[in-house]
TrEMBL record:
Organism in which the protein naturally occurs: Pseudoduganella lurida
Domain AAA+ ATPase: from-to ranges: 191-397
GO BP terms: double-strand break repair via homologous recombination
Keyword Disulfide bond: no
Gene label: recD
Protein name: RecBCD enzyme subunit RecD
Lineage: Bacteria, Pseudomonadati, Pseudomonadota, Betaproteobacteria, Burkholderiales
Amino acid sequence: MTDHTALFAAIDTLTADGKLRRLAGAFTRFIATLGDTPAPVLVACVLLSELEGRGHSCLVLADLAGDPSPQLGWTDGEWSRLRSAAGPLPKQVKGWRAALHDCEQAWSVGDLDFNQPLVLDGERLYLRRYWRDEATVAASVRSRATALHDVDTAEVRGWLDRLFAQDKRGKAADGDTGPDWQKIACAAALRGQLAVITGGPGTGKTYTVARLLALLFAMAGNQAHELRIALAAPTGKAAARLKQSIDTALDELAGRLEDALPLKALAGRMGGARTLHSLLGARPDTRAFAYNAGNPLDVDVLIVDEASMVHLEMMAALLAALPPQARLILLGDKDQLASVEAGAVLGDLCAGAESGNYDAASAEYVLAAAGEAIPAAFRERDGGPLAQRTVMLRRSRRFGGPIGALALAVNAGDADGARAVLRGDATGQVHWIEGARPNDVLALALRGREGTAAGYRDYLELIRQGPTVAHGGDHEAWVRDVLRSFERFRLLCAVREGEWGVAGLNEAIEQKLEGAGLLRRRGEWYVGRPVMVTRNDYATGVYNGDIGLTLPDPARPGSLRVWFTDGEAVRSVLATRLRNVETAFAMTVHKSQGSEFTHTVMVLPPQANAVLARELVYTGITRAREFFTLVSPNAAVLGEAIAEKTQRASGLREALGR
Ligand SMILES: Nc1ncnc2c1ncn2[C@@H]1O[C@H](COP(=O)(O)OP(=O)(O)OP(=O)(O)O)[C@@H](O)[C@H]1O
């Protein structure tokens, strides 16, 4: 057996320095126990496991042959330490491929498969699980993207003209001369087994999908009442928002289409929106779901919102459980942060969405079915089947002002533009505290800023007042008011640790609010404590990312319950029954996905770091409905973050193009 003592010592030092997660070393040691393993393979293993923990699905051999330190956020010295402990490493991709190919612990795709833990697919190295998930997603997306329905274009055209009748007037009025991408999205979705509808906030993704539902009902004729439609999203909050927006849009349509389509009755049969975990039948203590390829979901149409948050493993499980004849409609913003877990599925699916890449047949179909001509600029390249099923909505109805301009500049990597908006907004919708001190954040948390919703003071005042005559003795009405008030203001952090991170700020804010007499802490639980659930808990029915507020239990004086919004309703759990929660005055941008707040404050740390990238800044900004405040102790960090675009290693784009 080769002696790897020096290599493991280097791995341990890097782990102790926080450069590698513990699992990376443990996994590499496990591989070494399986047989005589050359040092280059162990180096590949440790980096593969580390990168997987950072959201990458695989290790690209070219990165290994070049310099992997930027991707890892390591200094040259750290990479040199590992390299010199390993002995000579291949200098070229060919050499790495050969080393991995010859190793018994790696299966080279195409060779005889012995279920080895590592998979070498072309010039990418995978942990087997991720390779399998990626292959499942690629195969399912490819087959769904190529399966086309026969469509009576004249009939579709008639319906789409009715469904979008009001918009023509609005469009002409605001001088938008481009095609109606919403209408195009409906037509494209109707034709295929898969539709991917992407767009920034307020571009009308739910507005469009409500019309698509009406169109599906209309085209199903007298079988419309048999259509089984399921709505889902990665978090409970996002699911509740999806249901609410679709209901509102369908209500409005039902009024207009009364004579032609019994939309109210049809929509009424749809049921609520669910989390993906609950839709698939997640079970405690196992990764397996009740619904899978052997026991498929009982649906004809599945609509999934906030698809950017769906990680690779979940997408693979979802696609496996979806019957082949069912339609899948994915909605999401491709520019938002990808899932915390490995994969960037929506980003990969939407790789060509910006430029459209529609073929002649699609253009012809869209013209006939939607009456919309796709401009030549979006037809320059034939992007293959998936491109024909993907539509990007390009016009935001909600984000016209400075918040929209800021989001656009950040997304385009234009740091100067972003700074100009932040510094030059006279309306007060966006504001930048440059060179901030911790006290600035605390003042915002207490009072908000002038002209905006008032920090956390408002909801705490409502709690102090208790139910009033306005609530007519209805305790739940008061709880709803308090929860709504809490949703008006939120502090988002880019990092967890330190004075400018979630942990430090939560503690400081609690103290500040207590000092102002707005709350009284007595141990862990106190009236007014906002909490975020950090782990799914099937026993109490609360899920990772759910946010609740601690209030007195009206039935049991002296005890506390945590109240959560559940669609239009509220529900509560005894505080002491909640095991995995953390205080949520400040939360990470990651955890804020799928939520919006009237006034969003985003706090950047004093130094740039690996997680601080363009997608994070964009996601933070787009959580703001009316007001956005950026707080940064070091103004330069904004530009550094905007310059950094996250690239997650994955083979999905290539596999989808095959
Ligand atoms: N074509 C349209 N004509 C008129 N109003 C529209 C149109 N499209 C969208 N809207 C309105 O714009 C607002 C935003 O639309 P919607 O909520 O569907 O966007 P979204 O892309 O789902 O946003 P997000 O998911 O970020 O909340 C809604 O009030 C909706 O009614």
